[in-house]
Design goal:
single chain; 295 residues; alpha/beta; Rossmann fold; four-stranded antiparallel sheet; 9 helices; AAA+_ATPase
Length: 295
């Protein structure tokens, strides 16, 4: 299967600060990719690079086989829904659909009209009078009716209530099944990603901490709990992601492809949220180690 996004040493700098650094990845087509990380991790920068809104400072990125935004034809293959699902407050729902038809050569007018009808939106209603959930659904409709091969969504549900988030994500999943396109979705809400994503990227401090298919990541990460043990006494094939210690007990999250047979450990599997938090906690662990070395 062809790659939907490939990056090699990708970086973007604002002044002296790196917003994204040394980003290398190869994402196969056909996935719903969850992009997660703390504020300032580089998520929005990556999505803007992928959609052709920004140029790299370092490295390169290929989306759907060519440079992002390289030609009008390439732009037509990528949909983008920005943070806060922006729409034009003074335009009606129908105005948005007419604008979408004028701007997008692959526009599916029938699909857009049908979806608006299914959502119960009044075509004559101005967007500024819609609820947050309705505006999000309108923005998603515009992205879907473009008939993209890749749909990029930057925190599309962050400001929505739980019911509106569920309805938005349900609509997204139904569309991906029906129209078979790829999605890259950033979010702070890991529970939402857990519902819809089958590929995960964790960004922390502008760098990739882990990336891969969710099932494979969950199968190869484990929590070990047992008597206190220093990390240098763990087997070489157990890569420590994060660690916590008391006077008598150690708790590790490790990544390994090998079975864990040590009877001293209680081994438990991780959920997606546990895995994400472990890699975020790794940053705290690395900072503690650096401070100890400085002392």
């Amino acid at each position: 299967m062809n790659a939907v996004l490939q990056a090699q040493g990708l970086g973007r700098k604002y002044g002296k600060r790196w917003a994204l650094r040394e980003f290398t990845i190869d994402i196969p087509a056909g996935h719903v990719v969850g992009l997660v990380g703390p504020n300032g991790a580089g998520k929005t920068t990556l999505l803007k690079l992928a959609s052709g809104q920004l140029e790299p400072t370092a490295g390169g990125i290929i989306v759907l086989g060519s440079r992002p935004g390289d030609t009008p034809a390439q732009l037509a293959r990528v949909g983008f829904v920005a943070q806060d699902t922006p729409v034009y407050a003074g335009l009606s729902v129908a105005d948005h659909l007419r604008l979408g038809a004028r701007l997008n050569p692959r526009w599916d007018a029938a699909m857009a009209r049908d979806r608006i009808a299914q959502l119960g939106l009044d075509p004559a209603q101005r967007a500024g009078k819609l609820s947050g959930g309705q505006r999000a659904q309108l923005a998603l409709t515009l992205g879907l009716a473009k008939r993209p091969e890749l749909l990029i969504l930057d925190e599309p549900v962050a400001s929505l209530d739980p019911l509106a988030r569920r309805e938005f994500l349900q609509g997204l999943m139904e569309a991906t099944v029906e129209h078979e396109f790829s999605v890259v979705l950033s979010s702070h809400l890991v529970s939402d990603l857990e519902r819809v994503c089958d590929f995960l990227i964790v960004l922390v401090d502008s760098r990739v901490q882990v990336a891969g298919e969710v099932d494979q990541l969950l199968a190869t990460h484990h929590r070990l709990t047992g008597p206190r043990r220093d990390p240098d006494r763990l087997p070489a094939d157990q890569r420590v992601v994060c660690a916590r210690h008391t006077d008598r007990q150690s708790t590790y999250v490790v990544r390994t492809d090998a079975p864990i047979h040590d009877p001293a450990w209680t081994v438990t599997q991780l959920g997606l949220e546990d895995l994400v938090l472990a890699y975020m906690d790794k940053r705290t662990m690395d900072q503690r180690v650096a401070l100890e070395v400085q002392r």
